[in-house]
Amino acid sequence: MDNNSEFIIITGMSGAGKSEAIKILEDLGFFCVDNLPPALISKFAELYLRSQGKVEQVALVIDVRGGDFFDSLFEELSMLEGMGVNYKILFLESNTRMLINRFKKTRRRHPLAPKGRISEAISLERKKLDKIRGKADKIIDTTNLSPKELKGAIKESFLKVSQDKQLTVSILSFGFKYGIPLDADLMFDVRFLPNPHYVDSLRPLTGENKKIQEYVLKWPVTQKFKEKLFDLIEFLLPNYIKEGKTHLTIAIGCTGGKHRSVTFAEKLYESLNGRYNVLIEHRDSER
């Protein structure tokens, strides 16, 4: 198996934050499956290995919701080892009082207490999970953890990529005449820059063309704005990562979304690509 691969099994106490944990890993790019019956782990691993690296990061939640199937967990783990899958186990737990409070707050029933007392179900669950807890690679007590703190603990324990690669930056060029993108985190208006639209030979081209880029970038006002904008973004991105953000959409707009905005989107992509996970889209360039 590739050294960059991650196969994480999340288990632990009901109400300890397993659903939150899998959401965190999903945001970090993992392929996630919640409440997979243990008997299907090896079958899933076969598909994982057949992907030949297309799926490198996987997280599965396995817990007592699997009922009687949960008893086959250790047999399935042995099969994973025989298949050469280097899995890791994340075990989440919390103290009994906090677990009871969480169940009361959400009004959800404990999987081991369809009719009985929650405290008795928690005690039974601890006994059932004691053996797998001893096999865990990482145990996180979520009693006093906020979602942000849990995210930090998971990233520190399991994320192999560099800090910059934890953030996906989507760069979107658009035309204001067609409406602003509603999902933008940052939006910049470049309509004040000289417009190639008024040059007959350039009008049919888009900002992906070098002639358009040369025209847009040759003006002193453009160079000054580019310097300030790129400096701002270079300052912001590490701070967004520090705050725990995993996706950021930067929208750059001009009148029609064909020339100036596309040029700046392309140049920003060139500046960030290789250091961050960067995507680019020209929404209106072909209108």
Summary tags:
287 residues; 9 helices; 9 strands
Biggest β-sheet: strands ordered side by side in the sheet: 2-3-1-4-5
Derived structural class: alpha/beta
Give the DSSP E fraction (strand runs of 2 or more residues).
15-25%
What's the average pLDDT?
A: 87
Helical amount among residues, as a percent range? 40-55%
How many distinct beta strands? 9
What distance lies between the first and last C-alpha atoms, to the nearest angstrom?
A: 46 Å
Instruction: Give me the Rg, rounded.
Output: 25 Å
Counting DSSP H or I runs of 4 or more residues, the number of helices is 9
Care to describe what's here?
The chain is of the alpha/beta class and 287 residues long. It contains nine helices and nine strands. Strands 2-3-1-4-5 form a five-stranded parallel beta sheet, sandwiched between helices. Helix 2 (41-50) links the parallel strand 2 (31-33) and strand 3 (57-61). Helix 1 packs across helix 6 (147-158) and helix 4 packs across helix 5. The two termini are 46 Å apart.
